[in-house]
Amino acid sequence: MKLLSLLIIGAALCFGAVDINKADKKELMSINGVGEAKANAILEYRKKNNCFGSVAELKEVKGFGDKFLEKSKAGITAGECKKK
Q1: Distances (CA, A) of 14 to 8, 73, 74, 80
Q2: Cα 84 → chain centroid
Q3: pTM for this structure?
Q4: Residue 8: CB partners within 8 Å, gap ≥ 6?
Q5: What are 26-75's pLDDT values in tens digits?
Q6: pLDDT tops 60 at residue 13
Q7: So what's the pLDDT on residue 4?
Q8: Strand-pair partners of 18
Q9: Which residue intervals of the chain are DSSP H helices?
Q10: Separation CA 80–CA 9 (nearest Å)
Q11: pLDDT value of position 60
Q12: Of 1.10.150.280, 3.90.550.10, 3.30.457.10, 3.40.190.10, which CATH number belongs to 2-77?
């Protein structure tokens, strides 16, 4: 099971961006500069706000700013958002 998870994460990194609206904690942690605390912060934001309307909205989460987005924007996406 762990091997399968690693393969899925690896494929996501090679072939596309990590969707911050759908990724689990391990997938979020695969983003360069995102450790356990930041992954948890993203998950908490999603829990409270349903989802991210755009990648830029990630700046509303503590620990994420312009520098992070500039370095990581190619590897991150915010998929379809169905706000409540």
Answers
A1: 10, 15, 12, 21
A2: 20
A3: 0.77
A4: 27
A5: 999 999 999 999 999 999 999 999 999 999 999 999 999 999 999 998 99
A6: no
A7: 47
A8: 76
A9: 2-15, 25-29, 36-49, 66-72
A10: 20
A11: 96
A12: 1.10.150.280
